[in-house]
TrEMBL record:
Lineage: Bacteria, Pseudomonadati, Pseudomonadota, Alphaproteobacteria, Rhodospirillales
Chain residue ranges for the region called Disordered: 361-399
UniProt source species: Azospirillum isscasi
Alphabetical list of InterPro entries matching this protein: Beta_helix, PbH1, Pectin_lyas_fold, Pectin_lyase_fold/virulence
SUPFAM superfamilies referenced in this protein's UniProt entry, alphabetically: Pectin lyase-like
Official protein name in the record: Right-handed parallel beta-helix repeat-containing protein
Pfam family, one: Beta_helix
UniProt domain Right handed beta helix: residue ranges: 232-365
UniProt feature, compositional bias: Polar residues: 372-389
């Protein structure tokens, strides 16, 4: 729906200072290096725009102190890979950013496996870059992304995934960025037990165009603590496996997860659900529409006990609203309340296929299409009200 407003910029945060908020203010005494692809010279000092370096090779080979900023000139492009050489700290990260006027500086891998690599460093910030052209990964964060921020970065046109978090991460923020048009996942966490993960105010769209039948969701992974909030997530898994590529995919196997998914707009993902959650997840205040399968699919938890809290979401024109199915040996507890369901395709608004612990109340259900002026007649589902429960149900298109 083009008339829908973009998600608001605010995000729930603890009272403490945001990650890297003091990066520039506390780095006034730290060096700043400049890089100019046209007029730079690697024999210079790099310490001012007129003393700028020229190449990625020079940047990659130089060690930087915590708090250092390495700035690439806007309007310029570099061929090859940017490989982080030094670690900073949470308070004084090494920052790779931009200076000057014009379009964001471009790191174009030109077919190299990775465009930008964290290279095992910690305490690093990427700000205002465009990352493209990798045969595989645009931005590779690993083997342990600790105290890393990605802000106002465009990751696009890479043959594999846009952003890969390759090992367990502690303190990662991806904020205000565009992760679009990559061949596989938009963002993927390959390991479990990631903590302090914040993915917010991003556009994650048009990923998963590779024609190899892979499972290519907008985001896929397992998070122990963190939130995915205020993003627009659309048209991911374009050529992914049918029923297997979703807007957001919280995979199985994350014991004790406290992940929150909230205030996102998730729509038009053509090969799967808006959200598929196999590990415990709290899901609220999202607008989820026109996805090929259910708005939210829950279950497939194997031997882990999981809890799902799903409330205050709006669904329309999906193939079903909320679908719980394929329970594993672990217990499932579901709180499903105060959601608004419009037209739900071939499935019911709420389907609970297994015997689980559940509280289902206060949901409003309508068979009428959503309109600009509001909705058609709705039925309010009270405690103990009608919910479709089908023992042993296994929809073939949702895996």
């Amino acid at each position: 729906m083009d008339h829908l407003p973009l998600p608001p910029p605010a995000i729930e945060r603890p009272a403490q200072q945001p990650l890297f908020a003091s990066a520039r203010g506390s780095a006034d005494d730290a060096p700043v290096f400049y890089v100019d692809a046209t007029d730079g010279d690697d024999r210079r000092s790099g310490r001012g725009p007129k003393e700028a370096w020229r190449s990625l090779d020079k940047v990659n080979a130089t060690s930087f102190a915590p708090g250092t900023r390495v700035l690439f000139e806007r309007g310029e492009s570099w061929r090859g890979s940017l490989l982080v050489s030094s670690s900073g700290t949470a308070e004084r990260p090494v920052t790779y950013g931009a200076y000057g006027k014009g379009d964001a500086p471009v790191i174009d891998a030109r077919g190299a496996p990775v465009a930008v690599g964290l290279n095992g460093r910690t305490g690093v910030a990427f700000d205002g870059l465009t990352i493209t052209g990798a045969a595989d990964t645009g931005l590779l964060l690993g083997p342990r992304a600790r105290n890393v921020s990605v802000t106002n970065v465009t990751v696009t046109g890479n043959g594999g995934s846009g952003i890969v978090v390759a090992g367990t991460s502690d303190g990662l923020r991806i904020d205000g960025s565009a992760i679009t048009g990559n061949g596989a996942y938009g963002i993927v966490h390959y390991a479990a037990d990631n903590t302090g993960q914040v993915i917010t105010r991003n556009t994650i769209a048009d990923n998963g165009w590779r024609k190899d039948g892979g499972v290519y969701s907008g985001w896929n992974g397992r998070i122990l603590t963190g939130e995915i909030a205020h993003n627009r997530i659309r048209n991911n898994g374009i050529n992914g496996g049918e029923g297997r590529s979703h807007g957001l995919y919280h995979d199985q196997g994350q014991a004790g997860s406290a992940l929150k998914i909230h205030d996102n707009v998730i729509h038009d993902n053509p090969r799967g659900a808006g959200i598929l959650a196999k590990s415990s997840t709290e899901i609220y205040r999202n607008v989820i529409y026109r996805n090929a399968d259910a708005g939210i699919s829950l279950g497939q938890n194997r031997g882990i006990d999981v809890t799902y809290r799903v409330y205050d979401n709006e669904f329309y024109d999906n193939n079903g609203g909320v679908l719980q199915h394929q329970k594993g040996n672990g217990a499932i507890t579901l709180e499903l309340r105060d959601n608004l369901f419009h037209r739900n395709g071939k499935r019911a608004a709420i389907i609970i296929a297994d015997t689980i612990g559940k509280t289902v109340t206060g949901n409003r259900i309508s068979d009428e299409p959503k309109t600009e002026s509001g909705t058609g007649p709705t039925a309010i589902q009270q405690t103990g009200g009608t919910v479709r429960e089908t023992s042993g149900m296994r929809p073939e298109t949702v895996r």
